[in-house]
Amino acid sequence: MHSILLEIITPQRKAFAENVNAVYVPTANGRIGVLPKHLRLFTSLTEGEIKITYGGKDWYLAIGGGFMEVTKEKISILVSRAVHADEINESELKKAQEEAKDKIRQKGKTEERTEALASLRRSYLELKVLGHHKHRQMPSMPSVS
């Protein structure tokens, strides 16, 4: 099966770098899939879940918004954040969810509520990624730090 180099980079680190068989990403117009030999493409990405297929398995990451460029040689994904399932602490995440819900219930400043909503959205996304990981009982995803 054909493969292509996929690099996922955040401002803090290179979160992933492997040859993959497919990647599925969230865009403003819906989810798109990219396979080796895909036509050149540059698109913006929305906050969401990336599905990566390689080694006969599917892997998932939660990402912040960013961009993806597809060339003949590689797929480059530049995002504000990328979180692997094995980097997620479920108990801390649930605690953060409750704190965000409390802030939303309070009639505070608009900025605080907006940040709380964003935090809550991120936590639900990360729990979804963690659920994929637990459901399949897969080994940890390799990453490049």
Automatic annotation (TrEMBL):
Major localization class: membrane
ATP synthase F1 complex delta/epsilon subunit N-terminal domain span: 6-82
Positions of region (Disordered): 94-115
Molecular-function GO term, any one: proton-transporting ATP synthase activity, rotational mechanism
Topology term for the membrane: Peripheral membrane protein
CDD domains, A to Z: F1-ATPase_delta
Domain of life of the organism encoding this protein: Bacteria
Subunit structure: F-type ATPases have 2 components, CF(1) - the catalytic core - and CF(0) - the membrane proton channel. CF(1) has five subunits: alpha(3), beta(3), gamma(1), delta(1), epsilon(1). CF(0) has three main subunits: a, b and c.
Family: Belongs to the ATPase epsilon chain family.
Protein name from the UniProt record: ATP synthase epsilon chain
